[in-house]
Each structure stands twice: as structure tokens, then as C-alpha cells.
Amino acid sequence: MHNPPPPDASFVPGSAEPGTETNVGRLAATIERLRREVLRAQMAAEGRALIEVAKGVLIERLRLSVSGAAQQLATLAEQAGLTQLELAADIINQAAQDRISEAARAFLAYTQSEELSREAADVAVRLRRAESGALQATDAQAVVESLLEHALTPLGATAVAAWEAGPDGSLTLVGYAGFGAEEARRWRYVPPGVETPARRALVKRESVWIKDLSALGLPSIGGRDTPGGRVAVPAGTGGRIFAVLEVGWPHSLPVQPPQVRKQIEALAELCAYTLEAPDRPASDHDLQTLPELVDLADGLPDAALVLCPYLDEDGRLGDFRIQHANAAFADPAGRPRTMVAGALMLEAYPLAAEEGGLWEKIERVHATGEPYRAEKMTLTALVDQVPLSSDAAVSITRHRDAVLLIWRLRDESTQLANLLQHAQRLGRIGGFEQNTATGRILWNNQLYALYGLTDGEQPIPLERLAEHCHPDDAAAIGRFLHTVLHHRRSASTAFRLQRSDGIARHIRVVAEPVLDEGGRPLAIRGAYQDISSQHWTEVALAATRDQLAHSEQQSAERNRLALQLQQAIMPPKREPMETFDLQIAVRYRPAEQEHLVGGDWYDAVVLPSKQIMLSVGDVAGHGIEGATGMVVLRNALRGLAATGAGPAQLLAWLNLVTHHLTDQVTATAILGLYDPETRILRWARAGHLPPILIRQGEAVELDLINGIMLGAVSEADYEERQIQLATDDILLMYTDGLIERRDRTLQHSQAQLLRTAIYPTTSLEHRLDNLLTHNHSDTDDDTCLVGIQLN
């Protein structure tokens, strides 16, 4: 006789007898049923919305009543063999003539069978449902969720993000689906200039299709979780891009047919339409809507034009209307501003349409919001059908939907004066002219700055120069003045200027008299040059010479200590090691020059788990810093290996040590764990060259698996591989000092190493010695080499 189950047995999963349901199972079934009902209700509501829109089209086109339109829709659907929803989507496509209908027509043209035609109808319904959901959405988050659910998931996409383009070229994440909340917080804002798929699409102003995001190495939202295919599509209206739609696939994305591309472009335009700000000014700007920009242009000292986009019949950017020209406007063709104000840009300046010319820069700034500035740009205008070119400094910025164009024309005299001004500023030279008859003195701005005076103060006559110099320099100043004023010859001297603000400067002055035809002096012209930096450089150079011998001695001592530390940890040659069925040989060759002693290391040790750890690494840098970094990482790896973790985990931990517990150290490394029982070697790499396997007289490199160098980032994942070793197999690990050359690529040197590695030898040690002897490196870097051979 069976005992009855306990009263609460129905609450324990798996405790119910066959054929019965638990309360948890009933609850799960109820939740799933309600979820399906909600989904069906949403789809039905969206379907009813499309059918109602189609009825409205029939009412407007056929002048039917509401009931008549409903009956007509049902009749047409029955005759066409379609559902009312499919027919409604087709009617809307025919009436709308938008990007969604264009995508549907492209897919229909691609179809060749009844099955594909049915798929084309499904595409039209999906796109219109996505449109309905987006238009009913209350925020950008709901928009992207609707796009992913209705239109992108059938294409295999699993994630989507909507970016809003800022006026400075930045990107702000305004909606996402398929990405985690933490990932979205990390990518909520992308500053200008950061290269991402969305940024690339914004700058290029075209769709960017990426087959494999992980292979390209371009950062983006969800790069780790969704590393497969990506597409970024810019969208906007009137030539202005203010949104980018980015779609992600979990797998590599093959080349997509044109009809799929059109679908995604239509969704991007729909996303941009729903995200468009309601207060954005209309494209046919009236002057009254731009008072602030007009006031700004009128307050500028340079020529400025306020440009507004001029759209064609299809709503695309065709040109820019010159809405306003400021009072300082200077036309390259000499026309007054009244002749260009109100005209189209390409009508007033047709040669601006040249490739890479002014109009292209204006269009780019208007589309992306990224400002453009150039110190020198050639502007070409037509004067009686003759092109006239002028150089100008140009600035182009976008203000909401308008563009502000500023230029400053530069004629030859202006360019020469500007060049001279820059030369005087860079050389810290101040010029002067003193009229001997009237006593009038003319200084340039740089000379006022040298004396520490303002432009309104009285210049200092040459005769009173001694009053402003150091007393010890008075004699030299006297000889200088006597030569210039009495002998009427050019002269120069150096002195220490004592300024009124207490600052002393070392100055060189040169002057020459200007004489008339009779030899009488008319004026004295000359220049002052601040040579303080040169003087203090000479003083510092003298002090440096005194310290150089001491510094060289200290450097030699540091190099000696680094070399001793390197040799103490890793002697150039260690006795061969044989454990279990494995022979191990190591070699270390230090750099020939002591100051190039680096951070290369090797290690071969039997762990408590009876596995054999083999490692080779290279710390960036030379000298004592490289040697101490090598000691830290080598010892840390030994301690971490005692945990029994695998090579990938050990490198991940060693990366944390390198990033957080060392002072700006980076390194490459390769790590292997050999199990004598299975004869399997598991290995991982961190930015290092892969091992070489020699088997049956042939040498090959193992696959280059993923793994970033140590210390580059705080957290990193490393790939792990394994290889089954056979008797007489030889495995070599080495650092780049073995093969690196200045005149050849790394691939060429690696190929040469493979040829050298198969040279027949009598033992493993002889093979390592042969590799060191016949290597072709010329960088004088230290080298580590570890070899194992299975008996």
C-alpha cells in the first residue's frame, strides 16, 4: 500500500507523479498564455491601424463611405488572394511613395515565384507595422524596440541602437534594444572625433556595412556581446543628418542584396523622422527666424554670410540661399553685398561647386554639424566670365539649420605684412625708426612688449638707452651709440635691459643710419631682439657639461645593476632539464650594449599539480626599469600558476597585476602548461609571437590566437588552445630579439626562422645554439629561447 505524498509535494519541482502538473508549471503556462495574448493584441492593434489607413486612402481616392471602403477592401483582398492586412500595406505603399514603399517595390521586383511574392508581401507588412509602432511610440526607446521587433529580427539582427548627432559632431545614444543597460550607460555619449561605425557613417554621409566588427577592431556599443556584422545608416531631412541607426548581428554578415539594404535605409529614415525635434525651424527659413544669427554676423569684423538650405521638389538639399550678408562683406569679385544677398550660393559663386571646394565644405558642415576652419583657402569668382582667385581664411559653422560662413580676404601686401609679423613674433624682434630731424619715434607692437610698455606710452629715444640697461653694460652702449650717431655706420651690441616692472631681459640691438644724398642723417632704423633664451641656454649648457660626467657615471652604474639583476634571474645558459618524458633547454642572450639591457624573461618549472609550466615574455623598455618589471611579472606568474588555473586565466590575472600593481609597465608573453599524462600542451598568448612546432622534419607556426598585450587595459580575455604532442616533437618559444630586423618585415624574418629551425642537429641544445648563431636580427635586443622535445 502506497503512502500519500506530503501536503506540499506539489510545490517541489519534479516531485509530482507522471501526468500531473505542479503549481509552478501552471503559473508558467498562465504567464506564457498571457504573454501570447498581449502579443496578439499588439499585432492586431497595429494591423487594425494599417487597415484603417488603407480605408482612408480608398475613401479619399474613390470617394467612398466608411462602410463602402471596408467592403471594397474586403472584396479586393479576396480577388487578389491576399489578406486584408497585406492588401492594406500594398495600398499604403502605392499612396505614400516613400522609402518604405520603395523598399517594398525593390523586394517585389526581386521575387520570381509565388513563394517569394508571399515573402515580399510579408516584408511590406513588417515595414508598415514597424512604421505604425514607431509613430505611436512616446520616446526613442520605444521606436527602436518597435523597429527591432517588427522589421529587423526577421533579417537576423539581434540588436539596434539609435544615435542623435550633435551640432559638434558628437553622438548621443537615445534608444537601444538588444544591448544590456550597463553597456548602454557606458556608451551614452561619444565625443567628437572618436572613430565608431556610427561616427564613420556620419562623416561619410553614407551607409557603412561591416562584415565582422571583431575582425575590424572598431569600437562600438555591444562590441563584446555582439561582435558580428554591423551596419550604420545616417538619416535626416533637407541634407542635414541628425540621426544614425546602427544594427548588429551576432554572426559574420555576408554581402546583403540591394533590397535588404533598402529596407534598412527606410527604417533609418523612419527612425530619424520620429526623432526629429518638433521645434526645428522649417527648411524655407524666413529672415525673422534668424535674428540672433544675423546680429552675430553683423557684429563680426570679417565678411560673413548667413546661409539657409534650399530644398528641391523632392525635399533634398539643392543649394543654399544667401539669407544675409553683413556690413563687413567683401566679395572676391568686388560686388556689393546687395547683389549677393537673397541669391542662391551656386548662382552667386558657381565655381564653388568644384570638387573639394567651398560648397562641398558648406554641405558637409550642414550635414554633420562638424565645424570647418582653414587659414588659407582659395576662393574663385567669375568677373565677366573670367575666373578671379583670392586667398582667404575661412570658417564655417552650423547654427540649428542655418550655416554661418566667414572669410577674410588676403591680398599680397596683407600676406607679406602678416608673414613679417609672424616672423618678428617668433624671433622676438621689435623694430623701430627714429627721425633725427623731428625726434619722432615709431615702434611696432613687439618692441613695446619687449620693454614692458603699453602702446600709449612714450617710446624711449636711442640716446637714452643707457638709462634702461644694467650699469655694467653702459660702456658697451656708449660705443654702440658713438658708432651709429657720430661715425654714421651700422653697429650692434648686447646688453641687459632693466624694465620698469623689475624684469631683466638679455637684448641684442642693431641699428643703421639713413642718409640723404649729401650724407646727412635723416633717421635711425633698427631692431631689438630678445636673446634671453639663448643666453640662459648657454648658461644651462655650461652647467650641463659639469653634470654630464656625473650623469654618465650614474647611468653606467644603473646599467651594471640592471645587467647583474638580469643575469642573476636568468643566466645566459642553464643546464638542460629532463622531467617525465620531456627534455627542456633554455637560452638567454643579453644585449651587447649594457644600456639596452631589456626585460625579456623565460621560465620552466614543475608545478605542484605535476604539470610543467613554460613561459617566455618581453617587458617594454630597457635598463633598470625593464629588468625590475621582468622580475615582478616572472615571480607573479610563478605564484599564480600554483593555483592550478589554465593558461588563459593565468594571463588574465597577470594582466591585472601588470595594469594595477606596476608603474606603467606593458609586456608581451606566451604561456604553456604541459600535462605528462595526456601529452597535451595547453597554451595562450598576450600579444606575443606564436610558438613553432617541428614535426617530422617540418616547422610550422601555431595559429595566432587572440590575446592583447599585458597592461594595456585593466580587464582582458585571452583565448586558449591545446596541441597533442607526439614522440620527437619539438616546440620552440622565443622573443622578438631573435628575428627582428630594421630592413625587413617581421613576416620575412619569421619565414627565415622556420627554415633555420629544421636544420638537422644532434640534440635539443645544439638546435637552440644553432638558432642563436644563425639568426638574422640586427636590433641588438636581448633574446630568450625555450625549447622542449618529447621523448
UniProtKB/TrEMBL annotation:
Residues 491-543 form the PAC domain. It holds the Pfam family ANTAR. It comes from the Bacteria. Residues 31-92 form the ANTAR domain. InterPro entries: ANTAR (IPR005561), Bact_Sigma-Reg (IPR052016), GAF-like_dom_sf (IPR029016), PAS-assoc_C (IPR000700), PAS-like_dom_sf (IPR035965), PAS_fold_3 (IPR013655), PPM-type-like_dom_sf (IPR036457), PPM-type_phosphatase-like_dom (IPR001932). Keywords: Hydrolase, Transcription, Transcription regulation. Gene3D superfamilies: 2.10.70.100, 3.30.450.40, PAS domain (3.30.450.20), PPM-type phosphatase domain (3.60.40.10), Winged helix-like DNA-binding domain superfamily/Winged helix DNA-binding domain (1.10.10.10). This is SpoIIE family protein phosphatase. It comes from Nonomuraea insulae.
